[in-house]
Amino acid sequence: MEKIEIHFTPDAIDYLHKLVGILFDKNYFSFEEYAQLYVQQIYNFIEFELKNFPLRKTPKVLQELGSYYAFYKANNRTTWYIFFEKRDSRVLITHILFGLEIIQESSKARDGFGIWTSEFISTMILLGVIYIGDKLAKEKIAMLVALTVTAGYWFTSSTFFANPAVTIARSFTNTFVGISPDGVMGFIAAQILAVVLVGLILEAGKRVDRSKYRP
After folding, report:
1. How distant, in Å, are the alpha carbons of 11, 32, 154, 173, 190 from that of 105?
2. Residues 200, 201, 202, 207: is their CA dihedral positive or negative?
3. Which of 63, 106, 159, 187 is deepest in the core (most CB within 10 A)?
4. In a structure prediction context, what are the per-residue pLDDT tens digits for the chain, which is 215 residues long?
5. Where are the domains of the chain?
6. Which CATH class is domain 5-100?
């Protein structure tokens, strides 16, 4: 069998090094050592198994990543795509990308009184922004909502779902933004409670206003 020399571009090496921190920081692994082992398995595939794969031409729209590609299926949900150039018996790894199944079941646990309280407050904040925006800057509501949700992701422990449809949708992605199906009802209950409370507050405000003008 032809001996294949595997080489990596500096960008590819840098990506693998950074991947350990990314996987650990985003809570894909509880311990950094497990993230290191996961990345090592990708490296081992490239180093020892890539030579056994038939050459696959990269589609034209992706050829800037590399003329050829192979894939490594890490598990039932995640596939890694390795792009490379090949000349004679030398292979140069140029890019490494990952792909996920379109529909997954999230395993990210989000439950407990603190998380539900955070989601309750998140929903109240979003409803308040929408209400005030409708009164003062109707043409900017979409921007205000987008900015609020983006900021809320970082300053709330629940990561600012604030919407039953979004909550259900995020249960179908097994990434750091997901939510386990077991936690969905708790979030939706907190959101509904926030809607009811905001509705009561607004109704009370209207009654106060009407009483001021009552003869």
Report:
1. 32, 24, 24, 6, 22
2. positive
3. 187
4. 567 899 999 999 999 999 999 888 888 888 999 999 999 999 999 999 988 888 899 988 888 899 999 999 888 778 899 999 998 889 999 999 887 555 667 888 899 999 999 999 999 999 999 999 999 998 999 999 999 999 998 889 999 999 999 999 888 877 778 899 999 999 999 999 999 999 999 999 888 777 766 65
5. 5-100, 113-212
6. alpha beta
